Amino acid sequence: MAGSELPPTSKDFNSTSLIMDILERVVRKFSGHKSEKDFPKYVMLADSYKEQYMQQA
């Protein structure tokens, strides 16, 4: 790691995985989340990122 970079968190993993179109249930399994209630925020973040990326293309 260079400089003051922090190690990735589960939030980073969740968001990045969803941005890369890994299925939500797979991400949930790896992150250890039992409930779906926390995932809408990650899905919305990933969808927003992808939409912004496509508008720049």
Please, could you describe this protein's structure?
The radius of gyration is 13 Å and the shape is elongated. It has one domain. It has helices spanning 10-19, 24-31, 39-56. Helix 1 (10-19) crosses helix 3. The N and C termini lie far apart (30 Å). It has 57 residues and is an all-alpha fold.
Rg from Cα: 13 Å
Percent of residues in beta strands?
under 5%
The total domain count is 1
Q: Unreliable segments (pLDDT under 50, ≥5 consecutive)?
A: none
Average of per-residue pLDDT values: 82
Helix content: 55-70%
- The secondary-structure element order is HHH
Number of strands: 0
Structural class by secondary-structure content: mainly alpha
Shape: elongated
How many angstroms does the end-to-end distance come to?
Answer: 30 Å
Largest sheet: none
Number of H/I helices: 3
List the helices and strands and how they pair.
Layout: H1 10-19, H2 24-31, H3 39-56
Helix pairs in contact: 1-2, 1-3
Question: Can I get a quick summary?
Answer:
By secondary structure, this protein is mainly alpha-helical. The protein is built from three helices and no strands.
List keywords for this structure.
mainly alpha, 3 helices, 57 residues
